[in-house]
Amino acid sequence: MALDPKWSGRLSGRFGRRHMGSLMTGAGALIAAACGAATGTSKPAAGGAGAAGTSNASGVTFANPNLVVSVQWLQQHANDANVRIVDARPAADYEKGHIRGAVSLPVVETFDPAAQKNFPDTKEKLEALFSEKGIGNTTRVITYDNGKETSAPRLFWTLEYIGHTNAAVLDGGLKAWQAGQGAVTTEVPKVEPAKFTSKIDPAKMPTKEQCELAIGDKTKVVLDARSPEEYRGEDVRAKFGGHIPGAVNIDWRENFDANSVLKAPAELKTMYESKGVTKDKEVIAHCQTGQRSSATYWVLRLLGYPKVGNYAGSWVEWGNDPTTKKVQGANP
Fold first, then answer.
1. pTM
2. What radius of gyration do the chain's Cα atoms show?
3. What is the C-alpha to C-alpha distance for residues 143 and 158, in angstroms, rounded to an integer?
4. 289-310 pLDDT, tens per residue?
């Protein structure tokens, strides 16, 4: 049974002293959740392993802590038989140095080359791709990029979209790994192919039409993960600038602190709820091409939002369509 030392209270670093009380009083829940976080075969308990930034005052933890792992956890479990570490960065970056045992799977390889909007590739191609990388349906997949980037969250979202239920992102990515004295190598591991059978979840990838139906619907919220300048229509990256009417703007970078690791759950919860992004609503996240909003999707999943999807067409589709509704400037 393995307890993730960082995400169960951050025993070292900036959260250590602040969370020791929570660890001591919540030991039972932490141990129970550790099993789920390590194996991915059981549902973690609230406040368990992987629950970052537990606050003595608020008691807020990640609802789904198994969707993120710390450097300490990966150092302990990198060689576990059922763990597959996946480097989602470009192949050239992988060749310069990567976590030992990691396979290279640049996230761009999961895109459909015929779609031109960063939509995921076909069911058959994705099954073949993941099988080739040694990813089976029950494999514990840990994906990473350099930290505070979009490649790993985008790969995480793709895995969930096609039905994989045991994936996580390395918090802080390769930079955090190296800062934690993690070894880096240029050696390419040999992996045995696995059998992956997908089960597409359409709810994970809302369409343009569903975004249109969400306008004015109090049970839904469109969450724009782009920069405020893009949202207001000052930074135009399509035929038209602006945002979807009623969309809430929370820049994807706001999910991370100055060290490029996730902010504490209580802080993230407050940030989203203060903008009306609450768990009782269906959330449709988008950006320009569905990559930055993948990070938003990942964080909302960590927080336990039951209905959240990533609009892959995003502004490159919406902003280039003359028939869609658009608003310039900030919402009142």
1. 0.84
2. 19
3. 12
4. 999 999 999 999 999 999 999 9
Amino acid at 27: A
State residue 123 phi and psi, 5-degree precision.
-55, -45
| Residue 265 CB partners (closer than 8 Å, separation 6+) | 51, 52, 53, 54, 60, 61, 62, 302, 303
Beta bridge partners of 140: 83
- Provide the Cα torsion 97, 99, 103, 109; round to 10°: -60
Q: Is 256 helix (H, G, I), strand (E, B) or coil?
A: strand
Show which residues are catalytic: 287
DSSP letter string, 200-215: --GGGS--HHHHHHHT
Please check whether the domain covering 78-200 is classified as CATH 3.90.650.10: no
> What is the number of other CB atoms lying within 10 angstroms of the CB of residue 27?
12
Strand order from edge to edge, sheet including 103-104: 68-69, 167-170, 140-144, 83-87, 103-104
Please report which residue ranges of the chain form alpha helices under DSSP H. 16-25, 27-39, 71-77, 91-96, 123-132, 151-161, 173-179, 208-214, 228-232, 265-273, 292-303, 314-318
Compute the average pLDDT of residues 214-233. Answer: 98
The fold of the 203-318 domain, in CATH, is: Oxidized Rhodanese; domain 1 (3.40.250)
